[in-house]
Specification:
Length: about 500
Amino acid sequence: MMRAVNTGIRCLIVFALAAFLLGESAAAATGAAASSDFTDHWVGFVCLAVFFFAYTLVICEETIHLKKSKPVMVAAGIIWALVAWAFTQAGDTETAHQAIKHNLLEFAELFLFLLAAMTYINSMDERGVFGSLRAWLVSRGFSFRAIFWITGGLAFVISPIADNLTTALLIATVVIAVGGTDHRFIAISCINIVVAANAGGAFSPFGDITTLMVWQKGLVAFQEFFVLFLPSLVNWIVPAAIMTLVLPGGKPPPLDEKAELLEGAWVMVGLFIVTIGLAVSAHNFLHLPPVIGMMSGLGLLKIYGYYLERRDHFFPAPSEDDIGQSGLMEGTLPDKRRTADRPPAFNVFKALQRAEWDTLMFFYGIILSVGGLGTLGYLALGSNLMYGDLGPTTANVLVGFLSAIVDNIPIMFAVLSVLPDMDHGQWLLVTLTAGVGGSMLSIGSAAGVAVMGQARGIYTFFTHLKWSWAIMLGYGASIWVHFLVNGDQFH
């Protein structure tokens, strides 16, 4: 019943904002939008209807059990078929072709980058890196207050590397395990984790899809994202400090949980750090897309996976009747030469299979759908409405609220497609607001939606909504701090 109410609210919000969001549905094909305007054509209206219907199905995913990628992928095909037909009827056979190629290139860079990152995260998870962290946390016997701050802090510092969705899911398992039957503590801690994960992801290109898109667009350099650290920290600390006042006293009983780090775990962590360095270097020094560095790093992981798969060949175990020169040799043989206790062989392609394919295909549908709408001419409409009439500061603050209601990915893609004339401080501001704005509602970010599914019935839309006022205070405070500490970025 509660899920149905949540879904109904989301669907009503989308339909209520549909007219306003027409202006946000921009695309990368700026040349096409400038040369032709189909915003008053029946093709434009049909494409808008297709997009909003598909997005409503995405919002209703929990109720209708239809994967979010399916409706938007179909919508993308329909929209581009209509776009191509409209331009062909106008005697233009090239614009739609060039525009969709541009959008496909945008998606390809994002897709391959995320695929490499997801494969690394899944590989480290398979080797027990995250399981060991969880086992350590639940077995320490911390107080409720300490668990609240430790889990929030970990979500804040891990999400810049492992992305906010993965981090929120990982840390939420800790509070669910430790909280036991104390549903109030679990709910408040889940809110704290979602806010912290989104805030942590806002000051790193690896922390959120929106920051990644801004970095790949070349609007903000890798090191420049870190000036958002303090505003992001304030965004988390303010609501966390308020929620601390209602935490239960005492401590839960420690859980006896153990986890084993499998062979190669720390090597993979090191390779992931090297891969991040390759991506940054490719972008900053060679002026190549960051995805080149990520895919090169994925190649390193595959080579190391080959070693792990072939280690029995490289280091053959002795025969059963061979105990070495003396019985004293027993137990002294290096671990890598003993087969009895070895974990299952590592297969990098299994980690690749575990990538969030539905999410990746969802990005395809969203980018292509929004791109098609922009090619029809909604680019100019969105630019005039948001950044012409309202001004950049108001528009960028509004982006955060829209991200909470709809989703930050299509909103940010629209902004990047519009490419409004803004100074560096404003680009940092929209990066911040799009990254943390989704925390105001549980449905506003992938992290919130995922944790709702994980703590089903405990952490809900309305549980989060009760604390939205505190999260909004943090949102406003983070914007104020950004203007305060990064004032030199504005011109």
